[in-house]
Amino acid sequence: PYLSDPDKNQSPTKDPLNPISGTDIIVAARSNVVSGKVVVMGSSTFLEDHMITKYDHLRLISNIFDYLSESETDSTPEEMEYTYSELVLAAEEYLKDNNYDDAIKASDKAITLDSSKYEPYFIKAKSLWGKRKYSDALIEINNTLDRDPGYDERIEALVLKGDILFSLGKYEESLSTYNIAKGINDKLFGAWYGIARSQYNLGNYQESIEAINTALDISPTDTDANAFKSMLVSIGDDVRVDEAARYYKAAEESYLAGDYKTSRENYVKSKNLYTELGDQEKVSLIDSKIRSIDSISMSKNSIVLILGILAILGLGLVGVLIYLLKPEIFRKKE
User: What's phi and psi for 286, nearest 5 deg?
Assistant: First the structure.
């Protein structure tokens, strides 16, 4: 469908003697839905990257695009309407590239077309997890599980939910979720690793060791799991582990009871022990708890200070009023 120009001194223009029709070419296209990128190739393999600038090939490409422009209406990518499947595929591609924002946008568009399917919610949950927006990710992973994903997808979603809950510091809930995943498939590395970390943060050292050993039986070379086990082994017989866990538990109970002073004291004791043990993850968590208590205490102190100032001002105003109404009270007796 093209002619060579012996002189090769003209720009490749449409060839009136050899017009292209739909049956004369094979078009292989792969579209990136949102940005509208399209790759078009001819029916033979000579259109390779290193030959694309040859004149005859440019001539063919010119004719192809002439044909396409004549047979299709002009529309910009923004004007095109995409199907649910196209949007989900686009969101998956964005997620693979760690382009979380565009993955979320494509997922939201897919949800507007069909909110009954789990796929866009799952992609959105993973994207929010990647952005460390754990509370929002929890909402979307629950939406995913509510829409009856398949066997493999349900397991993956449960493990992700456990990871999200763990990151939110909800260790009992994360443990429960990991156990649900393990109940479906007891050969899941992610579930056993999550159980090990949750048990440890709940102060259950022995259960944590047992779970991490099972996880490493499934995936012996996992770097994070091996590092976690090494940390557990290094502190295995140290009584400070139990002591730190007891202080932490006492601090949690005092906090829930509203006794923030006692809670802070126990958090500090627990933090000091975990610092000695080299558990930086736990130290960071306790630091956040202490900051939360300090912010509450500062708020209370501010309120007390303001009330005290108001009380003093109130007494002063009372004195002024009395002086104005009965000045004789303040006169010295002669």
Answer: -65, -40
Structure token pair of residue 204: 């259950």
CB 130 within 8 A of CB 108: no
How far is the C-alpha of 173 from the C-alpha of 180, rounded, in Å?
11
Rounded distance between C-alpha atoms, residue 261 and residue 257, angstroms: 11
Q: Do 28 and 148 have their domain in common?
A: no
Report how far residue 158's alpha carbon sits from residue 179's, in angstroms, rounded to the nearest whole number: 9
pLDDT digits (tens, 9 = 90+) for 121-178: 999 999 999 999 999 999 999 999 999 999 999 999 999 999 999 999 999 999 999 9
Distances (CA, A) of 203 to 56, 99, 124: 73, 37, 33
Q: Are residues 204 and 92 in the same domain?
A: yes
pTM assigned to the model: 0.53
Element (H, E) at 283: helix 280-325
How far lies 297's CA from each of 120, 300, 328, in Å? 43, 5, 46
149 shares its domain with 217: yes
CATH number at residue 105: 1.25.40.10
Mean pLDDT for 323-332 is 65
- 18-22, 28-32, 317-321: the lowest-pLDDT one: 28-32
**pLDDT tens profile 101-136:** 999 999 999 999 999 999 999 999 999 999 999 999
Q: What pLDDT score was predicted for residue 242?
A: 72
10 Å CB burial of residue 215 (0-12, 13-18, 19+) is buried
Domain of 327 in residue numbering reads as 303-334
Q: Are 200 and 232 in contact (CB under 8 A)?
A: yes
